[in-house]
Amino acid sequence: MTKPLPLIFNAPRRGKPPVHLADLDVDARKAAVTQAGQPAFRSDQLARHYFGGLTRDAAEMSDLPASGRQDFVDALLPELLTEVRSIACDDGDTRKTLWRAHDGTLIESVLMRYPDRITLCVSSQAGCGMACPFCATGQGGLQRNLSTAEIVEQVRLAARAARDGAMGEPGRLSNVVFMGMGEPLANYNRVLAAVKMITAPAPHGLGISARSVTVSTVGLVPAIEKLTAEKLQVRLAVSLHTPDDELRDTLVPVNDRWKIDEVLRAARAYADTTGRRVSIEYALIKEVNDQPWRADMLGELLRRHLGQLVHVNLIPLNPTPGSEWDASPKPVQDEFVRRVRAQGVACTVRDTRGQEIAAACGQLAAEELV
Broadest EC class (predicted)? Predict the structure, then answer.
């Protein structure tokens, strides 16, 4: 029997953002445009500019009547996020931006260029209510859910920045990972709507392949089951961080509600339904979860539950200032990888990015508030 959702699943909202075109489905867009005094077909024109042209600048929308154009655009495409600051590292291949929402809420996104792709790490909440002790966002607590449009706007702005050469050579944003601030499945309805808009073709969305979108979770089983029923082609990533419930109760407090076996059964159902391999996220923490026996246990557990439908993404911990947690030494990391692979489970180490620019989720926002 499915357990009731915890209170943290329905997050409080500190301030309701203005309604934006990206909050609305096609019919609602037409109704909003009509209410604004324009014919319904203008909704497609606006959507083409926003999703296709990646702009909300009225000056770039010459196909709209000049009279009242600015007011019309401002009403349907209100400014949701203003840039506080952006910092870059890794020879310009990593760019982290701190955004301020209409109510002063601070959120972060990270744009990363790789040889074969450009990836955006997007936030789904301001703060996080999961309270994982090694995570900077978790230490700050939950402020509110982001709206669908606030999520989509992060992607639109990143796609525009990549197109316009913010990371050197102009490029196309190809991948989106919901691994920024917040627990995506704790903001389920808005994240799902955002995913559908990110992957829909223009003029209804940004046209990014669903197979290039990853949604992460610490293991909210009822929400994983709901996502499974959607039969989307997005990748599911489960932040496991240890193979034993005793330690996970401490590292990932929501484990009190849904234990590891239950989470992995839900992950297997997702993999079976979608045909997509599940990614297991594992932040390797020195002398906490990096023991050889835990590597053996992890490999055996994943082989039993997921077989070949799994990949372990080992993450060298990016320590937060003042934290008691630290990254495991490289020899320990290498031995952990070897032991997981010995169980027949694919395992790789995530490319570390942005350590000198506080790239761990929540660090930049925390610095701004000091």
Answer: transferase
Tell me if residue 246 is catalytic. Answer: no
pLDDT score recorded for residue 8: 35
Give the model's confidence band at 6: pLDDT under 50 very low, under 70 low, under 90 confident, else very high. very low
List the beta bridge partners of residue 112: 94, 119
- Determine which one of 335, 361, 367, 368 is catalytic: 361
Average pLDDT, the chain: 91
Structural domains of the chain in order of their starting residue, each with its CATH number: 21-76 (1.10.150), 81-369 (3.20.20.70)
pTM of the model: 0.92
Structure tokens at 173: 């944003």
What's the token pair of residue 61?
A: 């929308």
Q: Which candidate in 108, 150, 153, 281 is catalytic?
A: 108
User: What tokens were used for 4?
Assistant: 């009731």
Q: Which residues of 307-344 are buried (b: 16+ CB within 10 A; e: fewer)?
A: eebbbbbbbbbbbbeebebebbeeebbebbbebbeebe
Which residues carry a binding-site annotation for S-adenosyl-L-methionine?
Answer: 182-183, 216, 239-241, 318
Binding residues: 128, 132, 135, 182-183, 216, 239-241, 318
The answer to whether residue 108 is catalytic is yes
Burial class (CB in 10 A: 0-12, 13-18, 19+), 256: exposed
- Using CB atoms within 10 Å of the CB of residue 3, give its burial: 0 to 12 exposed, 13 to 18 middle, 19+ buried: exposed
- As given in the structure block, the two tokens for residue 133 are 């002790």
Which residue type, as a one-letter code, is found at position 180?
Answer: G
End-to-end Cα, the chain, rounded Å = 45
The pair of three-digit structure tokens given for residue 95, joined into one six-digit string? 């760019």
Q: Which residues of 54-73 are buried (b: 16+ CB within 10 A; e: fewer)?
A: bbbebeebeebeeeebeebb
Q: How far apart are CA 33 and CA 43, in angstroms?
A: 6
Residue 98 backbone dihedrals phi, psi, to 5 degrees:
-100, 125
**pLDDT tens profile 257-271:** 999 999 999 999 999
Separation between Cα atoms, residue 305 and residue 266, nearest integer Å: 10
* pLDDT (average), residues 283-305: 97
Element (H, E) at 339: helix 330-342
